[in-house]
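U., I forgot to send this yesterday:
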Amino acid sequence: MGRLIVIEGLDGSGKRTLTDALTRELADRGLTTTRWAFPRYGESVHADLISDAMHNRLGPLVDTVYGMAVLYALDRQGAAAGIRADLEKFDIVLIDRYLASNAAYCAARLHEDAHGDMVRWVREVELGRFDLPVPDAHLLLRVPVEVAAARTAHRAGTEAGRERDSYETDGGLQARCAKVYEQLAEQNWVSPWHVVDGSDAVDAAALADLVLG
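Result:
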């Protein structure tokens, strides 16, 4: 059985870059890896509905925090069997965003912290009702909100199809979300958390040591 490792952080924190570096390092050590990223845009109807809502194409749906949370959770539920199959085939399964993203962003939207009702509800729905695979560990990329915002703005201006959505352009939301992430890490919510400085180049070897425990 492989290990399920989740990479979390704000939009623009560098999750994709970290995942690339970690994948190479693990391969150099002779380990097999596979990757998932949520939402699964272009693959899941729920993810595509999320995109439509985030770009204001579904009326007021985006304003309904619990409604959006259900869409994110349904996207992951649709992938649960595939993740379990990968855990049987690979040494490491890396996931870019998982249920902690739902907990952090939705709590921040409601101006709650990690001890509030939303975080508890997300855990009950995604791990309880939907029976998603439980992560073995989380890696949280910590970056200043201003740095993350600058990165998403640059990405939107240089990569086709990467226009910023309503969450990415809301600086207050991003700041509140960062605080919830920190609290989740302090609690070791669901599984152990490791906080990584995402402001500079990551040390892939050190991260691999953490992942392998």
